[in-house]
Specification:
By secondary structure, this protein is α+β, with helices and mostly antiparallel strands. Helices cover 36% and strands 11% of the residues. Strand 1 and strand 2 form a beta hairpin. The structure holds iron/sulfur cluster and FE2/S2 (inorganic) cluster.
Amino acid sequence: MKLTLRVWRQRNADTEGAMSTYEVDGISADMSFLEMLDTLNEELILKGDDPVAFDHDCREGICGACSLVINGDAHGPERTTTCQLHMRSFADGDTIDVEPWRAAAFPVVKDLVVDRSAFDRIIQAGGYVTAPTGAAPEAHATPVPKPDADFAFEHAECIGCGACVAACPNGAAMLFTSAKVNHLNVLPQGAPERETRVLDMVAQMDEEGFGGCTLAGECATACPKGIPLVSITGMNKEWLRAARGVAKR
Ligand code: SF4
Ligand code: FES
């Protein structure tokens, strides 16, 4: 396949960026999108040009590092991570726009790399899970109802990629934060910090400059792990329950 790439290039956070156009040839339909970018970078390096900076790590859809807006869609045309997107989703001769996540809370570091440490600070604000020290407890010592275990597992699938923020017209982080809150708040092991967790994580989310949720639903559409929109409702219920409880004390 021969492709025209229009790639966002930005030297650092303090300089303005712009789209640069590159031609790549010999791209196999079986390559991943990142392997296609590797091919471009090999050519740039051989020419003595600066390679395109982009985030990646596992390349297996589990770490959440790969973060590209492809033709205007977070992670591109398939509902998957950029590393799991293959070039068979494009046609020979296509022109493809490649941009970083666009959100005020995710400043561009270089080219296609953005700083997502705001997510780390939201998780950090959730604090620790109280757990007795010592030997590992017997697996069935704390019974967890099957629906609760399934609910927690569904939310634990969030890989922190940030596609939900990039897709949201408000740059909101509600889907990510709700996944983290709901994962632990439904489990008995997460019960001791249930109130402080949701109040502190939501407060940190607001402090980081993410936008507010207007139920556009783009986040859930873009999420490669299928975190549902109703998770946000669940987090809002948790927040109201906690805020009322704190107000009564
Ligand atoms: S909720 Fe989905 S889109 Fe958002 S960070 Fe988690 S996995 Fe990524
Ligand atoms: S590189 Fe890890 S999810 Fe894509």
